[in-house]
Amino acid sequence: MSDAIPAELIEALREVELPTLGHFLEEGFCTPRMVPINAGAQMVGPARTLDLREPDALAVNRALHGLNPGDVLVIRVASGIHAPVGAVTAAAAIAQGAAGIVVDGPVTDVCALHDVQDRLPVFATGLIARTTKRTGRLGDDVLDCAVDIDGVMVSPGDLVLGDRQGVLVLPPAGPGDEILQAALASDRGESALLARIAAGEDLRELLPG
After folding, report:
1. Total domains, the chain
2. What is the DSSP letter of 133?
3. b/e for 14-53, b at 16 or more Cβ within 10 A?
4. Helix, strand, coil shares of the chain as percentages rounded to 5?
């Protein structure tokens, strides 16, 4: 696991919109398959990972036991057809102070996930009624290991960001101060630019071509 991520970096990343970072970055974005299941606040936090090679609910429980406040639980579902997250899992993650959950696979109990959206943003590739089982077949080697999430490699301690536009994975140091400051400046200037466009100013002056 990486060293603790500075609180100032977490707070700065909460202020910048993911599409704005998309103006400056090309790598680390999950595909449009990865969607917000509820409409929570912007998610930012270090990854705690689970490689769910089999649909073992007990392995999910162990991952929940290891969460620290502010962590994002990131789960790869090898089967792609079993939901490891639902009402009870979400409640447990909230009790541990998790910042959110990202599942490369489906989730369930969508109404319950909507009910807790202000406390736990959840991202997944869809919904399903088939869930994990208490098989106990997986060992601890599936916890805190590198996982492929929708084509993006996530290591424990990586920064995981999510909003209504999708999910972005960054190294623990973030996008770099130059990019972060440029993105923040872009967001702060956007409302004025939109106002000038709405006022009918010449687009050739406002939007370089």
Report:
1. 1
2. B
3. eebbbebbeeebeebbbeeebebbbebebbbbbbbbbbbe
4. 30, 25, 45
Provide CB contacts within 8 A for 163, sequence distance 6+.
17, 18, 36, 42, 43
Residue 180 has pLDDT above 50, yes or no: yes
User: What does the DSSP 8-state code read for residue 153?
Assistant: E
| Stretch (H or E) spanning 4 | none
DSSP secondary-structure letter at 51? E
What residues contact 2, with CB distance under 8 A and at least 6 apart?
46, 156, 157, 158, 172
Q: Is residue 50 one of the residues assigned to a domain?
A: yes
Structure tokens at 102: 């990202």
Annotated binding site for Mg(2+): 109
Task: Tell me, yes or no, whether 198 lies in a domain.
Answer: no
- Mean pLDDT across the stretch 182-207? 94
**CA 161 → CA 129, 178, 202, distances in Å?**
27, 18, 36
What are 107's two structure tokens?
């989730």
Structure tokens that stand for 134 in this block: 């208490």
Q: Looking at residue 58, which CATH number applies to its domain? A: 3.50.30.40
- Residues flagged as binding site: 109
Inside any domain, residue 1: no
Per residue in 118-143, pLDDT tens?
Answer: 999 999 999 999 999 999 999 999 99
Instruction: Select from 142, 177, 137, 174 the least CA-distant residue to 158.
Output: 174
> Is residue 128 included in any domain, yes or no?
yes
